[in-house]
Design goal:
It contains 24 helices and 27 strands. By secondary structure, it is α+β, with helices and mostly antiparallel strands.
Length: 681
């Protein structure tokens, strides 16, 4: 049990982390109990501490936070309330260890929450149920558990990749894939015992098949995904593929007609897909040029093959196969991004340290035995080393628990190139350190950066040091802060652009999926100003107009692509009267006649009726129905989506900044666009 003094020292050295949560608390609230839940659940964390009466008052010159005690006058009540809530709010009783201490002349409360045994997990808020009521500790934050987490909590000795796939037999095995395994395994260890087995026994030894009661064999997911025939994969796991997408430029374009320069859909057993995917990317990369001692010309790839292979293999073996999404390899002009479904089971704070947490242990073992993968937790370190040796920017990684997604990003730029050095020379007067220069090159190429990514540019940088360095870049006007808390990120400013870069055309620019740094960027032409400001849209014929509170945009030009520039003008505000005026008479009467307390069924029907007319944004629904947006979206709309009474207007990207709701899937934006195109043929 740590003392208050020890916890304050840790906070003032490293800030809040996975095991310490500081609260300036005069009462036990929702946030505190969510932290209790998260500490109880998080696997391998060994619990954590709440320090009540700790307030962050600023930042020291070295970037470290400054926490000071804040006297708690009602410590006895807080202690009794916390104990009572731990006994009554969850599905099981939680027993906190509580100490009331004096620190620097002020009363503070130290609470230790032990990690629960596996047999008692997950603990959850009884009234909310699962998975909504369960929380995990992801970094220094408490996050709601996903369906993926439920599988992890409840899985038996059999992992997903060892589960049997119905309607399979030995005819679904690709002989070429199995033969390729034998060849690779022999190269690694010619004396391997499994090489002496026949095909059936070999597959059983690898966990690729299981014997049925009738004496036949069925494939496990290991067998199907690693060795399965292409047609079997298409039949049984249709989303199991790799999409190679080449984009012209450095941003994802929302316009589907002009988005892709090239697309390749790759299917097949994982054993054969590694080389196929690597070759597709490497053959498409620009080549360098060098003369060796023999004066024979060669054209080495600009990106080390081992780096790309490691990134692709990691996506194969760590992806969540419970999510019906393909792996995406996106080739931009300046970088490669690899997106795979499934957040990292290993905490980002532990990346680079030895040891792996495997989602698919049997698949991982097959790749390790054939030297196709490194499974000892050192793969990221090896990629960073190889990129540094090649003179390239270090790779960066993002794990998004909420979106259940992992992104590896490989920049193709040499940091010490003449172009970068010339560009950075314009900032010489600011005396930037090397890491800040790296950050400016990164944000120029990618568009955004956050604290975690900054630290990946040099793994020796602490969280506090990163905060200080980024803060200085903001003060100098190079970066602009967006978001709050764990969702904080930074984008480049016009100052950076004006000094060394031409602004790209500002068409509708959108990321491929939600959850990565690029995806947090507002679409070009829109401006976000903090957490509480709103953005929406109204359609008047062919003209698209954006609305928001006190937000600004430039002049609007129409055509295939909307480009914004010139003098700034104020957005037009959303008006409830104008929204209601466009409704049919009967529906208008129902809405105007609503009482403050409306029955759930009546409210649901009003939402469905509205969304059957046209797509409505959450901002528009909030105004029309005069209901709190959080409650409206978190309860009513969520339930209607789950019951298939409402649908997303942009189903391919749920967190699209222009997302709306519709009552019929035929009203989806993609289908509407296609119909409009057909009308003009």
């Amino acid at each position: 049990m740590k003392t208050a003094k020890e916890l304050f020292e840790l906070l003032n050295s490293f800030d809040e982390d996975r095991r310490i949560e500081a609260k300036s608390a005069s009462a036990v609230g929702k946030s505190m109990m969510e932290t209790v839940c998260a500490f109880s659940n998080e696997p391998g964390l060994r619990g954590g501490y709440l320090l009540l009466g700790a307030k962050r008052v600023g930042m020291a010159d070295d970037g470290k936070p400054i926490y000071e005690p804040e006297n708690i006058e009602n410590s006895d009540k807080i202690e009794s309330d916390l104990v009572a809530m731990c006994n009554s709010m969850f599905n099981i009783h939680i027993r906190p260890i509580i100490q009331v201490e004096e620190y620097q002349g002020k009363t503070v409360v130290v609470v230790k929450i032990e990690e629960l045994p596996v047999s008692q997990k997950p603990v959850y808020f009884a009234k909310r149920g699962l998975p909504e009521g369960a929380f995990r500790r992801i970094g220094p934050s408490d996050e709601k558990c996903s369906q993926e987490d439920m599988y992890l909590f409840y899985q038996s000795a059999d992992t997903y990749d060892s589960c049997v796939v119905d309607d399979t037999d030995l005819d679904d095995i690709d002989e070429n894939a199995l033969g390729f395994y034998r060849r690779l395994r022999k190269e690694v260890n010619p004396e391997s015992e499994e090489l002496s087995l026949d095909d059936t026994d070999l597959l059983r030894a690898l966990g690729a098949i299981k014997k049925t009661k009738e004496g036949g064999y069925q494939l496990t997911y290991t067998g199907l995904l690693v060795f399965g025939k292409q047609m079997s994969l298409r039949r049984l796991v249709p989303s199991f593929r790799v999409d190679y997408i080449r984009i012209s430029g450095n941003q994802w374009m929302a316009d589907g007609n002009n988005r892709f320069e090239q697309t390749i859909d790759m299917r097949g057993p994982l054993m054969l897909m590694v080389n196929k995917a690597c070759s597709a990317v490497m053959d498409d990369l620009p080549k360098g040029f060098e003369l060796k001692d023999s004066l024979q010309a060669s054209t080495p790839a600009i990106l080390p093959n081992k780096v790309l292979r490691e990134a692709i293999v990691n996506a194969f073996i760590h992806r969540s196969n419970r999510v019906n999404q393909p792996i995406q390899i996106i080739r931009y002009s300046n970088r490669i991004e690899i997106h795979n479904p499934g957040y990292s089971l290993k905490s980002p704070e532990l990346w680079g340290e030895p040891g792996s947490e495997l989602r698919n242990p049997r698949i991982s073992e097959i790749f390790h035995d054939t030297n196709l993968a490194e499974t000892k937790g050192t793969g990221m370190g090896a990629m960073r080393r190889l990129m540094k040796e090649a003179g390239l920017m270090p790779p960066t990684f993002e794990s998004n628990h909420e979106a259940n997604k992992f992104t590896a990003r490989l920049l193709l730029h040499h940091f010490l190139s003449k172009e970068n050095m010339a560009w950075l020379s314009m900032f010489a007067e600011y005396n930037l350190i090397n890491e800040q220069k790296l950050a400016l090159v990164f944000v120029r190429e990618v568009g955004a950066i956050d604290n975690a990514t900054y630290r990946q540019l040099d793994t020796t940088i602490t969280h506090a040091r990163a905060r200080l360095d980024i803060h200085k870049l903001c003060e100098l006007g190079f970066l602009l802060k967006k978001g709050q808390g764990r969702n904080t990120y930074y984008i480049k400013t016009e100052k950076v652009v004006s000094l060394g870069e031409m602004l790209p055309p500002k068409g509708e620019m959108l990321p491929p999926q939600h959850g990565t740094l690029c995806e947090m960027l507002p679409p070009k032409g829109e401006m976000f100003h903090g957490e509480d400001e709103k953005n929406g849209e109204m359609f008047h014929g062919k003209q698209e107009m954006f609305h928001g509170k006190d937000e600004k945009n430039g002049e609007m030009f129409h055509g295939k692509q909307e480009i914004y520039h010139g003098e700034e003008k104020i957005y037009q505000a959303l008006s409830r009267d104008s929204l209601i005026a466009e409704l049919p008479k009967e529906l208008k009467g129902q809405i105007l006649g609503m009482k403050k307390w409306t029955a759930k069924e009546e409210m649901n029907q009003l939402i469905i009726s509205l969304c059957s007319l046209r797509p409505y944004s959450i901002d528009e629904l909030e105004l029309i129905l005069q209901r709190d947006q959080k409650s409206l979206k978190g309860h009513k709309i969520k339930a209607l989506l789950e019951s298939k009474q409402l649908f997303y207007w942009i189903p391919e990207m749920i967190r699209h900044p222009q997302q709306k709701y519709i009552a019929n899937p035929s009203m989806a934006r993609s289908k509407t666009k296609n119909n409009n195109k057909n009308d003009h043929k």
